[in-house]
Amino acid sequence: MLNFQQNGGNMERFFPILKESPLFAEIKEQDFSPMLECLGAKAQRYQRSETIFSEGDPAAYLGILCSGAAQVERIDYKGNRTIVSELTAGELFAESFACAGVERLPVSVTATEDCEVLLLDCRRITQACCNACAFHQQMIYNLLKITAQKSIRLHQRAEIISHRTTRDKLMAYLTLQATQKNTSRFTVPFDRQELADYLEVDRSGLSAEISKLRKEGVLNCRKSEFELL
Asked: How far apart are the first and last CA of the chain?
């Protein structure tokens, strides 16, 4: 369950990351302090491997990862983990569930590095307050745009894992990464186990396919670095 042990504090330390966050696009920095107060912002620190949100938690808050890294993941009834997405500093998470009015989160969010998170009450974003804050309309527009962009990424992932074989899933993922980064040489945000969890395949089978593709001259790789030949 959510447990805010370190709330409030000096919110100004978050301003540099907020200025880069798409949620705060077109919002003036001088509005940040009253805005965070209006939205009931809460700051929380998490250590590596600590759970930020657990499956079943109330879907009332959206999070902004202000430092470190985290993963959105889903665990099935057999205990198998699927990585839904990788989060880096500045990214939002859980906003879709909070905005959709889902009562309980269907996923978990886990810190993969020591991190600090800013949590915002989604209801205070989507519902105009009695103060008629000027930033509300802009923030709602920003949130809608972010949600739409994430929907596209989820659709891309669904296309990747719809392939039947480990080889096809891997090549679809690597091809998408090369296209998005506009280079044949790139680094993925996963180690081998995490990549297997993201593609929903067995790790040993994934490693075997990578080895075959290297021998066939299709790709080169070293840890998380890949090159399509």
From this structure: 47
